[in-house]
Design a protein that fits this description.
The protein is an all-alpha fold and 430 residues long. Helix content is 70%, strand content 3%. Helix 7 packs across helix 9, helix 10 packs antiparallel against helix 11 and helix 17 packs antiparallel against helix 18. The longest helix is centred in the N-terminal third of the chain and has 31 residues.
Length: 430
């Protein structure tokens, strides 16, 4: 059994190391980490629209002039949520360029320009029952629906650009007296031209053969099915357990899975916001707010529940001391003082609840969503918002109720293992 555990731990360590060193996953993780505040701000625009500008639910019901602010909040939402593909492409390309020692800003702009060449450049509009076309980019290509092809294209473009920049005959040599920025611009001129020609020709050829633009095709064939899997109980529970396995090894599981998780949760909240804007009910339960409020409330593994269980059932003075130190951070979803202080890392006594409690809490929240009690959120709260308040902002009073249930259930799933740890304790004698 020990041999199996060691082999399993080694496998997880290798996976974590591979993820951490992979320049593509690292770039994606960095891109979404940087852009996450904008997603949160964009989701709050929906709240402001409802609280201030809406004549049905907001202050505009009593102050009609406030309804005019709706366009401002709509613009705020578009600039962040509905435009997320473009900055994500830039950030991924920027970080890859930094890794490869390419000109970062030029590479980022090249990735954006390449994406523009493969998506529709006309939009269909209907005026007086007559359908016409006009120059423009559909919002679907700029928002969450373009994320996957944008991420893929950013990586491909950087790799092609890197190869072309190594070819000396493509560089236009300038005199040494010429400023570095101008020299760099001329050195990149031909590689940029070649890359954009490649993407433009490919994008046009793809449309001619399939009748779909590449962003539409990828969304239909790849992104939409993957989003459905991620939002399914099996999909999300698997990712949650996988994350906790890394936490058990002392590795930040959230950071390991973030390159996989973050594109989906960003797309989910964007889809929910779009649904509300269209007068529909949001249907994507698993968002960043859902993750913070119902998967890791009190910290990864439901550590706040462990703290409460220690207060209630533990006879160990050492555990009580750690619990006291970890209680306040736990209120703000910080679990490290207990994870590394108790410790929970590689602790066989607490392994089962530590690995599976977040999945149990997630399952409870998904069930509450399934029966219609817990609404899907359109507002993501940032990390550090205390428990009870976070779910109230994102999901209303129902969110607070569900979070309380999740925490209490996990208190009692931790309890038997706290009692076991009591029997293992041998107090120091003077």
């Amino acid at each position: 059994m020990t041999s199996f555990n060691e082999k399993f731990e080694n496998v997880l360590m290798v996976i974590a190391e591979k993820v951490d060193k992979n320049q593509y996953l690292t770039s994606i993780k960095s891109a979404f980490t940087i852009f996450m505040p904008f997603v949160i701000v964009g989701s709050f625009a929906t709240l402001l629209n409802a609280v201030i500008a809406s004549p049905k639910t907001g202050l505009a019901k009593w102050i009609p002039a406030l309804e005019k602010t709706k366009t401002a909040f709509t613009a705020l939402n578009f600039a962040t949520m509905s435009f997320m593909t473009i900055p994500i492409i830039f950030l991924i390309a920027f970080h890859l360029a930094k890794h490869y020692k390419l000109p970062e800003y030029i590479t980022g702009l090249l990735a954006i320009a390449s994406y523009i060449t493969v998506i529709p450049s006309v939009v269909t509009i209907k005026v007086d029952e007559v359908t016409k076309t006009a120059s423009g980019i559909p919002s679907s290509a700029l928002g969450a629906q373009g994320l996957f092809i944008g991420m893929i294209l950013a990586v491909i473009v950087v790799e092609i650009f890197k190869y072309l920049m190594k070819l000396k005959f493509l560089k236009i040599k300038m005199h040494e007296s010429v400023p570095t920025q101008i020299s760099t611009s001329f050195n990149t001129l031909l590689p940029i031209l070649i890359v954009l020609c490649i993407t433009s020709i490919f994008g046009n050829s793809f449309f001619q053969h399939t009748g779909l633009y590449i962003n539409e095709y990828i969304y239909k064939i790849v992104q939409a099915p993957l989003e459905a899997i991620f939002q399914s109980p099996i999909g999300i529970l698997s990712i949650v357990i996988f994350s906790q396995l890394f936490w058990f090894l002392g590795i930040h599981g959230g950071l390991v899975i973030s390159p996989i998780r973050n594109p989906f949760i960003a797309a989910a909240v964007a889809a929910n916001v779009a649904a509300v804007s269209a007068g529909q009910i949001p249907t994507q339960p698993v968002t960043y707010g859902f993750w913070m409020n119902f998967i890791v409330p009190g910290g990864a593994g439901m550590v706040l529940s462990l703290i409460i269980a220690i207060f209630l059932f533990s006879k160990r003075e050492d555990h009580k001391m750690i619990a006291k130190l970890g209680f306040l951070p736990g209120i703000f979803n910080i679990s490290e003082p207990v994870v590394f202080g108790l410790p929970l890392v590689l602790n066989p006594t607490f392994a089962i609840p530590f690995i599976f409690n977040s999945a149990i809490s997630c399952g409870i929240a998904l069930f509450a969503t399934k029966i219609g009690f817990l609404p899907c959120n359109t507002i993501d709260v940032p990390f550090g918002v205390p428990i009870l308040l976070g779910p109230f902002i994102g999901h209303g009073w129902q969110g607070t109720i569900v979070q309380i249930i999740c925490i209490l259930v996990c208190v009692f799933t931790w309890a038997p293992f706290v009692l076991i740890s009591n029997k293992q304790w041998k107090p120091e004698t003077k």
